[in-house]
Amino acid sequence: MKTMYQKLLSILLFLGLTIPHLPAMAQNNPLASYRWQNRLLLVFVPQVEDERLTTIQNTLNQVECEFKERDLLLGVFTSNAVSRIGNDSISSYQEAQLRAKYGIKSNQFAVILIGKDGQPKNQLSQVPEIERIFGQIDQMPMRQREMANRQTSCN
Question: Does 117 map to a domain?
Fold first, then answer.
């Protein structure tokens, strides 16, 4: 049997070997910095010229205020251009991580709504109706609190 000293030493060694690696593991999640700050609408397209992406971007331009009011950021992931979330570029490694996490192939179209808690709320294989996305967000408890505490600035 191990003595109490040996057990304590084993625990300390374990903690000493794993704790320094925790921040690095958290940094490997490309969505971590958005958690509790933004909701994300992630769009995965085979190519940046994809007409489905153009449709989504045109729609979002028409409802820009409502999109921002819900603390949403658009993420666009494609193999033939720089992938981005909002104004932040995403490395090809991070894009591959996200594709693997959500099971999306490079030639596949998908739209994923991510909540402020960092969890996926909806995954679609077609262009979403933005009013349905807004409706889903507006039903979330956190958004309900936001609406109660904030005045809308959109007309």
Answer: yes
